Amino acid sequence: MGARPASLFPETAPEPVPRVRVVLPLPTGNGYDYAVPEGMQVAPGDFVVVPLGPRRMIGVAWAGEPDDSVGDDRLKPIAERLDAAPLSSAVMDFVDWVAAYCLSPRGVVLRLVMRSGQALETKTGPAAYALAPSPPLELRLTEKRRAVLDAARGRPKTASQLAKAAGVTDGVVRSLAKAGALEPVELDPDIPFAAPDPSRPGRPLSEDQAQAVAELRAKIGGGYSTTLIDGVTGSGKTEVYLEAVAEALARDPSAQVLVLLPEIALTLPFLSRIEDRFGAAPAHWHSGMTSAQRRRVWRRVADGNARLVVGARSALFLPYTNLRLIVVDEEHEAAYKQHDGVLYHARDMAVARGARQGFPVLLASATPSLETLANVEEGRYGRVVLPSRFGPATLPDTRVVDMRQSPPDKGRWLSPVIVSALNDVLSRGEQVMLYLNRRGYAPVTLCRKCGERMCAPDSDTWLVEHRYTNRLVCHHTGFSMPKPEACPACGAHDSLSPCGPGVERIAEEARERWPEARIAVFSSDTVGSANAARDLLERMTAGEIDILVATQAAAKGHNFPGLTLVAAVDADLGLAGGDLRAAERTYQVLSQVSGRAGRAEKPGAVMLQSYQPDHPVIRALAGQDRDGFLSAELDGRRSLGFPPFGRLAALILSGDNETKLMEAAQTLVAAVPHAEGVEVWGPAPAPLYRLKGTYRIRFLIKSERRVSIQTFLRAWLSEVKIPSSVRRTVDVDPYNFS
Ligand code: ADP
C-alpha cells in the first residue's frame, strides 16, 4: 500500500464543539447535550429553544458536566437563546434536590417550574395613551377634550379607559392623539404588583403574641432555621407570622417571601388580610388561574417585582430570584402532598429549600404533624407557643355522646342528646355545624333482595348515592350513572337501598326536625367554585344560615362568630382502616372542626357522636389532651419504627394485564438487594386493587432513619427491567395507602 494522502490526516484534531446540557420539561431522564452555535453565549439558567425530533422546545441550560457519550458530529445546535431572566442557581439546585429526593427525572420537576406555558413568550401589551410631553401649541380645547386630557394625567390608559373616565366617546380620544396632544405608548402586558409596605403598623399584640414575634424576628436574617408556631385555633398564629413576614421584607429590599396555604378556599379572606397589613395585595398562585394571570405572577416573581407570594403547594416552584422566608400555614394538612407526577410534600420541600439556601422556614398549626413534633423534640426545629385564644374567646367544651347508650331513632342519625342540644342553641338564635366528612346521600347502595353492592365498572370502589343529582357516583374514578330502578344483579324492582349517611342525608333529617331553620350543605358537590364557597361562607358569617351541614371542606380556618355548637355526626369515621396516619388525621380534623365553635364572645361547645368513646383519639379530644394523644401516638410509631422514627416509601405497579403485572412484581421480589435496616413488604394487592380496569399492586419499603431509602430504591430499581405495559410509581414518604 502506498502512503495515504496527508490531507485526510490533519496534524491537529478539530476543535471540540462547545456544548451545553439542556434540561427539557419532559419525563426523559436528565437532559441532552446541544451544541452552542458560534456567536451565541449560553450560561447555566438561560432559557433556550432546542430541536427535539421534529419539534422545537423550550428548555434550560443546566450547570454541570455535559455528557460526552454523544459525539460532536451528532450534536444538534441550540436554535435560540430566549431573552428572559435566567433561572437562578438556587432554583436549579432545588430542582436537582427534589428530583433526587423523590426519585423523579429532573425534567418532570423542571416542568413544575415551567408550568406557566405562556410565560416565556414575548407578548405585546395593549395600546394606551399618555399626555404628550410637548403638546401642540394650537389645540382647539372643547370641554370634552379637556376632560380627556384631565383623565390622561398619571399613568397611561387605554382609549376606552380614558373615554370612560371622561364620559366621552373613543373618537374624542383618537382625535386628541391625531392632533398630537396624546402620545401612544404600549402598556406592560404583565402589570407589576404594588410593593408591600412592611413599615405599616400591625395590630397591638397580646403578651404571648409579642413574645412569639420577638423570637421569630430574631430568626429572620439569621440563616436557616425551622420554627413551629404551635398555637390553638384562634390564638393569632397568622397575626404573629405576618410580623415575621414584615421583618423579612423590611430587612432586604429585594427579599421575596412565600406563604403556603393548603386550599384556595382559605386564601380569599387571607388575601384581604394581607392587603390590610401591607397596603398591597400579594401575588396569588393557585390551580384555578387563567393563563394570563399565571404568566403575570411567573414573570413578576422571576424579575423580583412580586415580593410577597401567597399560594398553593406548587408556588414552591416559582422562579424566585431572592426567596428569604417561607411560611407553611396549617403545616399538618395532607393537601400539601402532591398525588400525581412528582409525589412531593410541600412542607418538607419548603424546609429543604430553606436549609439549602440558608433562610428561615415557619410552620404554623394548632395540631402539628407528628413529623414536625418529633423534629421539635429532637431539637432540629424550634417552637414558639401561643397557649390561648386571642381576646375573650375561649376554647369550646367538648363532650362525647356515647351512641351505645343514646342511639338515634331507627332510620335517623342524630342522637336524642344532640337533638336536644340543637334545640337549645337554635332557640337562642345561634348557629350550629353538623360535621360529617362524607359527601353525597349514602356511601353504599345495597340490594335488599340479593345483597348486591353497587360498584363502579371495572373497579373495586363503591358507588355513592347523590340525591341532589339523583346519580350514583364513584368518588375515586369520577364515574357516575343514574340510579337504576332495578337491581342490575337480580333484577328486583325498587330494591336498591341507601346504607349509612352522607351530608345530604343529614341535611334531610335536619330539615324534617327543624323545618323553620335555614339549612345549607357545604361540600365539594355543593360549592364547586371558589365563588360559590365564598358566598356560602359569607352567608354563614353573616348569620344567614342556622344549620350548616359540612364536610371537611368547611372545617378549616374560617371564623363564624355566631357558631356555638359543632356536632360531629360520626367522630369514629376515619379511625378504622390500615392507614398509618388514620388516628392522627382524625384527631387533627376533629380539633380543627371543634376550633370553629365559639370563636367570638359567645362560648362554644363541641359534641362528638361515637360508638368507641374509649378510643384514645376520642378520649384525648374529650379531655382536650393534645399532648397526651400525641405522646401515645408517637410511642406507638416509635415501637413500630414508622415515621417519624423510620422512613417509608411505596412502590406501586399498575397495568391492564394482570399476568404481566404479577410477573413484574415477581422479578422485583427476586431482585430486592440485601441492606441492613431496610425491610420490603409485598407485593400485595392495593386496597383499591382494580380501578377503571387497571390493576394495582403495592410494595411498602421501611427503613431505619439513618438509611437513605432513596439509595436503596435506586440500587433496587436499576437492577430490574419492567415491561413498558407496567407502570411504576415511587412514592417517598407516602400519605396515601389506597
Ligand atoms: P390563628 O391563625 O391562630 O387561627 P388568627 O391570627 O386568625 O389565629 O387570629 C384569630 C382571630 O383573632 C382573627 O380574627 C384575628 O383577627 C384576631 N386577632 C388575633 N390577634 C389579634 C390582635 N393582636 N389584635 C386584634 N385581633 C387579633
Task: Walk me through this protein's architecture.
With 738 residues, this protein is an alpha/beta fold. It has five domains: 19-114, PriA, 3(prime) DNA-binding domain (GIY-YIG endonuclease), CATH 3.40.1440; 127-186, Arc Repressor Mutant, subunit A; 207-386, Rossmann fold; 397-438 and 501-635, P-loop containing nucleotide triphosphate hydrolases (Rossmann fold, 3-Layer(aba) Sandwich), CATH 3.40.50; 646-732, Alpha-Beta Plaits (2-Layer Sandwich), CATH 3.30.70. It is 29% helix and 22% strand. It has a seven-stranded parallel beta sheet, with helices on both faces. The longest helix is centred in the N-terminal third of the chain and has 15 residues, at 237-251. The model has no long low-confidence stretch (mean pLDDT 87). It binds adenosine-5'-diphosphate (ADP). Adenosine-5'-diphosphate is lined by residues 203-206, 209, 231, 233-239, 390, 559.
Features:
738 residues; alpha/beta; GIY-YIG endonuclease; Arc Repressor Mutant, subunit A; Rossmann fold; 5 domains; seven-stranded parallel sheet; six-stranded parallel sheet; 19 helices; 29% helix; binds adenosine-5'-diphosphate
Described by its quaternary structure, the protein is single chain
Structural class of the secondary structure composition?
Answer: alpha/beta
The percentage helix is: 25-40%
- The best one-word shape is globular
Largest sheet: 7 strands, parallel
Please give the domain count: 5
Query: What's the tally of helices?
Result: 19
Given as residue ranges, the uncertain stretches (5+ residues, pLDDT < 50) are none
Number of DSSP E strands: 29
Sheet with the most strands: spatial strand order:
10-11-9-12-13-8-14
What do we call the CATH homologous superfamily of the largest domain? P-loop containing nucleotide triphosphate hydrolases
